[in-house]
Design brief:
The complex is a heterodimer of chains A (422) and B (237). With 422 residues, chain A is α+β, with helices and mostly antiparallel strands. In chain A, 32% of the residues lie in helices and 22% in strands. In chain A, helix 1 packs across helix 10. Chain B has three domains: 42 residues, no CATH class; 90 residues; 75 residues. Helix content of chain B is 69%, strand content 1%. The mean pLDDT of chain B is 86. Classes of the chains: A alpha+beta (422), B mainly alpha (237). Strand 16 of chain A pairs parallel with strand 1 of chain B.
Chain lengths: 422, 237
């Protein structure tokens, strides 16, 4: 899309997320960077003002069309805010003149909170990276403007491909769509009051976690998924007479499989499933299942089938002609029925966050917080930075059974763990 | 660094209980003088947003009702010389305003909400009665029925609050309350119409309702577990 265009269509995932937004399903995720010194709000604002024009597709307000939302470009600039609420809370992006993301600061921490209607974690990381670069430069750090794939500095021009809606690009009507699964087991915990979100972060040395995974000949993602399956199975078997499949939602960054530098959403989810009705599972069986599942399904061809399903639904004429206000009423129900009811929880591994080596010395940590969701009361995001891996549980409940079982298992396997909460 | 003696995980300084297992964390020596906070003491932004919307709606409607009432009273007085039909409209709007106060949660006490609603309804009924020349039904029938209704609601609220194990018993008790209200209304109406108490239609209502309410109460409190199981087996869906 040309830069001359002053409005942008929402991508396939963003269209859904925009209609879902509520107090408990905020669709807002957070990426935080902790620096070594207290944040200077004035310089942070100047940095944001400077880089925002480099990201014209983020300098937008969400507007209502008759049938779909769209992003309208604005010349206004977002204002940074002091962090004072729970993480990832709803900031009502559907209101007039509210940016679909916000920059928060607290102590030594800068956070990028963003609605999934705008972009995914990869887009968010690139934006935060650019902001950090600009901020560090302005506070006088001796950093050099070196070329790095993640650094979008304010003096560069946006590439046309950054505007690309990659789901549509890879849509092929000839590819058959994937079938939907059955309803999954859901954790029966009592929800928090609206507006409250609990965060529990476990910090583990990356090399020890990596070595442990290698002992089982699997990746860190596969290892953690197997642990999570075991925890959910254990909990489900101890509490429920009527068993249902345990299904995990694992987001996959499609930019690693299909060429794209889109700054919009470009991810899809895999949903490995373990059915406790078939019998008991040993940890080795779980490891074997998840390893082979990932080998089989993290594949561009399989992903194209999912894209086919999603875009085909979006292009359905009946859905398209329904006015937006009706879509807003029915989308949350459809999402609950066809998406969230099909999986038990979500675990997303953002992998090793690599910042340019000239920025790294000034940034202590990068952490990511998953968006809250009423249907999946607990979600996990994993990311590693420098020598540590951060396992962040985002919970809409006070119950701590799941993370206790999870971290206790890792502890028993010999991993040192530090726990932090909000 | 503090550790949880039970799960063995490392914790932040100043934590009183382990976030995973709730085990009390003993105080340790050599706590650093400055411990940077990772998160602020979070405020819940949801109630603020909801309260803001609610206040806006309430104030807008209140101003609208007040303005309309004054305009109509003024118009009525100017045209007919006395306050006549406009009193009914103004009372109606006042009643709606009182209901808004109760249903929008501005009154924290249920009894207070019920009382102001009862008083405003009585005021409306009295105003209507005053504007209809040929009857005095307000004192004979309106206020006893309204007070009785409010009393039943108040009583039910007190009973429901006392019950910990809520289920089919709530439906059973509500049906009994409906039967009692029908019988009392029947008595009051018959006394108003014919001068003595003659209960008839409420008996039919009670005969229809009470067995159902007793069945619900029995299912909730009295049914043995093996029959509950049978019931579940045959009627589950």
């Amino acid at each position: 899309m040309s830069l001359k265009h002053k409005w942008y269509r929402l991508d396939n995932a963003g269209r859904l997320y925009a209609s879902l937004t509520s107090a408990r399903v905020t669709t807002v995720f957070r990426i935080s960077a902790t620096l070594k010194e207290t944040i200077n709000p004035r310089i942070l604002q100047d940095s944001l003002d400077s880089i925002i024009e480099r990201f014209p597709y983020y300098q937008v307000f969400l507007k209502k069309g008759v049938f779909w939302y769209y992003f309208d470009h604005t010349n206004k600039k977002p204002k940074i805010q002091l962090e004072k609420n729970y993480p990832c809370m709803n900031f009502d992006i559907r209101k007039k003149s509210v940016f679909p993301f916000r920059i928060l600061y607290f102590g030594t921490k800068i956070s990028f909170e963003c609605s999934h209607s705008l972009t995914d974690g990869t887009g968010g990381l690139i934006f935060l990276n650019a902001l950090l670069f600009e901020y560090l430069k302005r506070i006088g750090k001796p950093i050099h403007d070196k070329k790095h794939p993640l650094t979008f500095t304010s003096d560069q021009k946006p590439n046309e491909a950054e505007f690309e809606e990659s789901f549509t690009k890879y849509y092929n009507p000839a590819i058959p769509k994937v079938k939907n699964g059955e309803r999954a087991y859901h954790l029966p915990f009592k929800l928090h009051k609206k507006g409250i979100y609990s965060i529990v972060t476990g910090i583990i040395p990356s090399n020890q976690l990596y070595n442990l995974s290698k002992q089982y000949n699997v990746s860190v993602t596969e290892f953690l998924c197997a642990i999570y399956f075991e925890v959910l199975l254990e909990y489900s078997l101890s509490k429920n007479k009527k068993l249902k499949p345990i299904v995990l939602n694992i987001p996959i960054n499609l930019r690693n499989l299909l060429p794209s530098i889109s700054m919009y959403n470009f991810f899809l989810s895999l949903t490995p499933s373990i059915d406790p009705r078939l019998g008991t599972y040993s940890f080795d069986e779980l490891i074997k299942y998840i390893h082979h599942y990932m080998q089989l399904y993290v594949d561009p061809k399989i992903m194209l089938k999912q894209i086919s399903r999603n875009i085909r639904s979006e292009r359905n004429i009946v859905l398209r002609i329904i006015p937006l206000f009706i879509k807003n009423l029915i989308m949350p129900k459809i999402y609950n029925l066809w998406a969230e009811s099909k999986y038990t929880s979500s675990i997303s591994n953002m992998g090793k966050i690599k910042l340019p080596e000239y920025i790294t010395p000034y940034i202590d940590r990068i952490e990511i917080i998953p968006p809250p969701s009423e249907g999946n009361k607990i979600k996990i995001v994993v990311n590693s930075y420098k020598d540590n891996t951060f396992l962040t549980f985002g919970k809409l409940t006070n119950d701590s059974t799941i993370e206790r079982l999870f971290f206790t298992k890792l502890k028993k396997m010999g991993l040192p763990i530090k726990i932090e909460t909000n | 660094m503090p550790y949880c003696p039970k799960c063995g995980v490392e914790l932040e300084y100043g934590v009183k209980n382990c976030p995973l297992c709730e085990f009390p964390i003993p105080d340790i020596e050599h706590i650093p003088t400055y411990i940077p906070k990772r998160y602020p003491k979070a405020q819940n932004n949801h109630p603020e947003n909801i309260r803001h919307i609610k206040n806006t709606v309430f104030i807008t409607l209140s101003v609208l009702f007040l303005t309309t009432s004054f305009l109509l009273l003024f118009f009525d007085k100017t045209v007919s010389g006395v306050l006549d039909w406009s009193l009914i409209t103004a009372s109606s709007l006042f009643t709606i305003e009182m209901m808004l106060i109760a249903f929008m949660g501005y009154s924290k006490s249920f009894t207070f909400s019920l009382s102001i609603n009862l008083l405003s309804v009585l005021l409306l009924l009295w105003t209507i009665n005053q504007n209809i020349n040929d009857t005095s039904w307000f004192f004979s029938i309106s206020w006893p029925l309204a007070v009785l209704f409010a009393f039943m609601i108040w009583l039910l609220e007190k009973i429901f609050r006392k019950i910990n194990d809520k289920g089919l018993n709530i439906a059973g008790i509500s049906l009994i309350a409906v039967s009692v209200y029908c019988i009392c209304s029947d008595a009051l109406i018959s006394y108003y119409l014919i001068g003595n108490i003659h209960i008839w239609w409420s008996i039919i209502t009670a005969i229809a309702i009470l067995p159902a309410s007793l069945l619900l109460l029995y299912l909730h409190y009295g049914l043995p577990d093996k029959y509950k199981e049978w019931f579940y087996k045959n009627f589950h869906f």
